[in-house]
Amino acid sequence: VAAVGAGARLADVYDELDRSDLTIPAGCGPSVGISGLTLGGGIGILGRKHGLTADHLVGAEIVLADGLAVSCDDTNLPDLFWALRGAGAGNFGVVTSMKFTTIPVPNLTDFHLVWPYSQASRVIDSWQRWAPKSPQELAASLLISMPGEVGKDPQVNVFGTMLGSESQTVSLLDELVGMVGSEPTIINHEQKTFRDAKHYLNQLSDGALHGEVPQTEGLDADVHDFSKSEFFRQVLPNDAIDELVENLGTERTSGQSRELDFSPWGGAYNQVAADATAFPHRSEFFLLKQAVAVPWNAAPGQREEATAWLDRSWALTHPWGSGGVYPNFPDPELEGWGLAYYGKNYSRLTEIKKRYDPDDLFRFHQSIPPADT
Ligand SMILES: Cc1cc2nc3c(=O)[nH]c(=O)nc-3n(C[C@H](O)[C@H](O)[C@H](O)COP(=O)(O)OP(=O)(O)OC[C@H]3O[C@@H](n4cnc5c(N)ncnc54)[C@H](O)[C@@H]3O)c2cc1C
To answer: How many CA atoms, within 13 angstroms, populate the side-chain half-sphere of residue 31?
Structure first.
């Protein structure tokens, strides 16, 4: 078990655990805070095998609205502990430390395949039939990025890791390539230590996935980005995929970059009951996050164009979505956010809120209200 201070960022957590050849399943962005990530779920390359970061939380210290600092786990204040795992971000108190079960650092094979944009529809259709049903050792994401430089070609990337040898990885990737029906223009794969694989994936996210343009992240980002996401329990039909791809390249404007970011679900994510923790998204196939970014100093009209593109794109796939939305990709415009983020757990969460924060001290746009208010 590892005790982690609530202010730690993922890079600190991984580095410290790595000294003992241990890790936790968590996200990729090194600057992401362990608290927000865990309290809203926590997905990453080990998730299909080992579950959410929140599924590895075994206890937390939290300062409640009345100023009391308490410990909670499966036996002490179990209702509060239940709520923290999936709905804990900002809703019930200030978490000051957390305890996680750890796993030994795995060796794995990382990979990156690139297809030209002309193959985007084929890759989406093939990926959605392959990645969510593949062995849970495989975490293969699909990212289609449309750069802000209008003359620059978009890129179709399948990338991730396999908890296994290079030859096991290649045979799984061959299945995908066969389904797509055309060879990728780039194929990279290499067996690495966990630490080196994470480093490689961070480098990819910083540049190559976006057509070599270095991306900035977090608070220093020089862009203003907007995103909408949804979970899917069924495959997207070909017509919807074609419209999605067409819309991605429609009316491109300089400085506006767009992304379709598909994360595989299934595996251990779906091996926990929807009401076992506050995180309800346990029957999904994949998560699609659609995002658009404009320069930080973009004029209001440019921002409106960007969000209009995003709304159109999201509406194209929404008819096939499950209605569930990942709380860690919050959407301030989302209608019916309580059900979308928390599903059938929402009503129980309002009761727990009433017990621990009856005066709604911890409130923000889209915070859980106390029951009966
Ligand atoms: C670059 C980048 C990469 C990402 N990669 C991943 C990924 O791989 N996997 C994934 O699952 N998600 C990922 N995310 C999404 C990430 O999980 C969310 O943005 C998450 O909210 C980040 O938490 P934070 O503590 O860093 O952020 P903050 O903005 O500080 O907090 C987010 C929310 O958590 C609450 N919160 C923070 N600390 C506490 C605390 N101590 N007690 C109670 N509430 C608290 C805040 O009130 C707020 O509501 C990524 C985000 C970014 C920007």
So the answer is: 8
- Strands 57-63 and 69-72, by their bridges, are antiparallel
37 Cα–ligand 1 center, Å: 4
**How far apart, in Å, are the Cα atoms of 103 and each of 39, 52, 73?**
19, 13, 20
For ligand 1, the distance from its centroid to the CA atom of residue 327, given in whole angstroms, is 10
Pure H helices in 189-237: 194-206
SS3 content of the chain, % helix, strand, coil (to 5): 40, 25, 40
| Nearest atom in ligand 1 to 43's CA | 11
pLDDT score at 210: 64
ipTM of the complex: 0.99
Cα distance between residue 169 and residue 191, in whole Å = 9
Residue 326 CA, ligand 1 centroid: distance in Å: 12
pLDDT tens digits, 148-204: 888 888 889 999 999 999 999 999 999 999 999 999 999 999 999 999 998 899 888
Nearest 5°: phi and psi at 188?
A: -125, 135
d(CA 204, CA 112): 9
- CA atoms of 25 and 51, how far apart (whole Å): 7
Tokens of 159: 């990338």
196 beta partners: none
Residue type at position 285? F
Query: Could you tell me the two tokens for 137?
Result: 């050792």
**Higher-scoring residue by pLDDT: 158, 207:** 158
CA angle 90, 94, 100 (to 5 degrees): 95
**pLDDT tens track for 320-358:** 999 999 999 999 999 999 999 999 999 999 999 999 999
Handedness of CA 188, 194, 196, 198 (dihedral sign): positive
- Residue 173 backbone phi and psi in degrees, to 5: -65, -35
Nearest CA to ligand 1 atom 2: 29
CA 353 to chain centre: 26
Structure tokens at 120: 């985007």
Q: What domains are there in the chain, each with its CATH number? A: 2-104 (3.30.465.10), 107-320 (3.40.462.20)
3-state DSSP call for residue 316?
Answer: helix
Length of the chain: 373
